[in-house]
UniProtKB/TrEMBL annotation:
One of its GO terms (molecular function) is transcription cis-regulatory region binding. It comes from Cryptosporangium phraense. Pfam families: TetR_N. This is TetR/AcrR family transcriptional regulator. The lineage of its organism: Bacteria, Bacillati, Actinomycetota, Actinomycetes, Cryptosporangiales. InterPro entries: Homeodomain-like_sf (IPR009057), HTH-type_TetR-like_transc_reg (IPR050109), HTH_TetR (IPR001647). SUPFAM superfamilies: Homeodomain-like.
Length: 426
C-alpha cells in the first residue's frame, strides 16, 4: 500500500542530492555570490520553478551543503576520539597522516561548503547562514590533539612543540587542501600525507640554530621590508587617490566588499561620487587597485628575500617571518581578500598572477634546497612540493590568533623546519 509513496520519497531524495551536488560544483567553481538559482536550474536541466519544489532559495541550498559538511567533520572527530581507526599502538606519524588524509578528502568532497566556511557568505546572507559558516571545527581539532597527546605521552614528539598550535594548524592545513585547485598534480591523499610529513619531520636536513637564522641576509631583507611597510604605508604619487584608497580599504574590510557602494566610500571620504569616479573607474577597479598595491609590496619583500645570498633554509625561514608580519600589517587587505574570493575563487581571480609569482619564487627556493641536499622531501613532483611548502609558511589565521607573532614563528621553526617528531620516532 505504501510502496508508491516510499518510491516517490526516494526519487525526491535522490533529486535533492543531485541538485546539491551540482550546486556545490557551481559554487566552488564560480563563487557562491556569482552563482544564481537560474544557473543551478540550467545545470540540472530543469526549469527554475521546478527547483523551487526542492529548495526555496539559494541560501537553503547553501545551508544544507554546510550542514552536510559539518556532519561529516563531526563524524570524523567522534570516530577518532571514541574508536579511532588506528589506535595508540600505531606509529604517531601514521596516525596523524591517516586523520589528516580523512580531513583533506572531506574538504575536497565539500568544496563549496568549505569555501563558504573559509570566506563566509556575502553580507546579505541571513544571520543563521553566517553563523553556520563560522561554526568552529572543535571535534576534529580535539581528535587531532588526542592523537598528538598520545604521541607526546610516549615520547614521540619533541618538547618544544606546542600541541595546541600543532593540532589547530594541522586541521586547518588539511581542510585547505579542499580549497586549493593549485594543488593539481597530486591526489588529496598524497597532498595531505606530504603536508603532514613536512610538519612531523621538517623540511630541513640540518636546520641551523636560531641565532644563525636570525643573522641571515634573508632575515635582514625581510626585516627591512617589514620596517618599510610601517614607514611608507602607500606609495601612490597621487595623494587624493592614496587617501581614497585608504578609506575604501577600511570600508571594504568593515562592511564587506559586496555590501559597500561607491556612495558609501564617497561619504566616508567626504567626497562626491563624481569626484570618486574621476579618480577611479568603479568599485571593482578600486578593489583591484587596493589589492594590487598590497600584492606589489608583499612581492617586493619576496624578491628581496629570495635574491639574498642566504641558503634555501634561511630563505624559507625569512619568508615565514615576512608572511606572519604581513598578516599583522595588512589585516584589512586579508579581510578584503576573503570577500574577493567569495565572488572570484582564487583560481579564477585576475589577482592570482601575483600569488602565482610568489609561488614560483618559493618553488625555486625549494628546488635549490633539494639540489644542495639541504631540503628533504621525497616522492612528489617539485611543483607539488613547492605548493605544500607555500601552504606551510603561510601560517593559518586561526593559529595566528592563538599566539603572538613571535610565538607562531617559533612554532613554525619547530615544525616546518625541524619537525615535531623526536629522533627516536622517525
Amino acid at each position: 500500500m505504501n510502496r508508491p509513496l516510499v518510491s516517490e520519497r526516494a526519487t525526491e531524495g535522490a533529486r535533492r542530492s543531485e541538485i546539491l551536488e551540482i550546486a556545490s560544483r557551481l559554487f566552488a567553481a564560480s563563487g557562491y555570490s556569482r552563482t544564481s538559482l537560474k544557473d543551478v536550474a540550467e545545470a540540472c536541466g530543469i526549469l527554475p520553478g521546478s527547483l523551487y519544489h526542492h529548495f526555496d532559495s539559494k541560501q537553503a541550498i547553501a545551508t544544507e551543503l554546510l550542514e552536510r559538511y559539518h556532519a561529516e567533520l563531526d563524524a570524523i572527530g567522534r570516530r577518532w576520539l571514541e574508536a579511532p581507526p588506528l589506535g595508540p599502538e600505531v606509529r604517531t606519524a601514521d596516525r596523524v597522516i591517516a586523520l589528516g588524509v580523512a580531513l583533506a578528502e572531506c574538504g575536497v568532497r565539500h568544496g563549496a561548503a568549505l569555501q563558504l566556511s573559509a570566506y563566509e557568505p556575502h553580507a546579505g546572507a541571513s544571520a543563521d547562514l553566517v553563523e553556520l559558516a563560522r561554526r568552529p571545527h572543535g571535534g576534529i581539532t580535539a581528535a587531532m590533539h588526542r592523537v598528538l597527546t598520545d604521541g607526546a605521552d610516549r615520547g614521540d614528539l619533541v618538547d618544544r612543540v606546542d600541541l595546541d598550535l600543532l593540532a589547530d594548524q594541522t586541521c586547518q592545513t588539511m581542510l585547505h587542501v579542499g580549497l586549493a585547485r593549485l594543488h593539481q598534480g597530486g591526489t588529496p591523499a598524497a597532498i595531505a600525507a606530504l603536508l603532514c610529513t613536512m610538519l612531523l619531520y621538517g623540511v630541513a636536513v640540518r636546520a641551523p640554530a636560531d641565532r644563525v637564522l636570525n643573522r641571515s641576509a634573508a632575515m635582514g631583507a625581510a626585516s627591512a621590508t617589514i620596517a618599510q611597510w610601517s614607514s611608507d604605508p602607500d606609495d601612490d604619487a597621487d595623494e587624493r587617490r592614496a587617501a581614497l584608497r585608504a578609506v575604501a580599504r577600511a570600508e571594504f574590510a568593515r562592511r564587506g566588499y559586496e555590501a559597500t557602494t561607491i556612495r558609501d566610500i564617497a561619504s566616508a571620504a567626504g567626497m562626491g561620487t563624481g569626484s570618486v569616479y574621476r579618480l577611479v573607474d568603479g568599485k571593482e577597479a578600486l578593489l583591484a587597485s587596493i589589492m594590487n598595491a598590497f600584492y606589489t609590496r608583499l612581492s617586493a619583500g619576496y624578491t628581496a628575500v629570495t635574491a639574498s645570498g642566504s641558503t634555501p633554509i634561511e630563505k624559507l625561514d625569512a619568508l615565514t617571518w615576512l608572511n606572519i608580519n604581513a598578516r599583522e600589517r595588512f589585516s584589512e587587505e586579508f579581510e578584503i581578500q576573503r570577500a574577493w574570493f567569495r565572488s572570484y575563487p582564487p583560481e579564477t581571480s585576475t589577482l592570482s598572477d601575483s600569488l602565482k609569482e610568489r609561488t614560483r619564487l618559493i618553488r625555486d627556493v625549494v628546488a635549490a634546497g633539494l639540489d644542495a641536499g639541504e631540503i628533504r622531501v621525497d616522492g612528489e613532483p617539485l611543483d607539488v612540493v613547492g605548493l605544500c611548502v607555500r601552504d606551510l609558511i603561510w601560517v593559518p589565521p586561526g593559529v595566528l590568533r592563538r599566539s603572538t607573532p613571535r610565538g607562531v614563528f617559533a612554532h613554525a621553526r619547530a615544525t616546518v623546519l625541524r619537525g615535531a617528531l623526536a629522533p627516536a620516532a622517525r
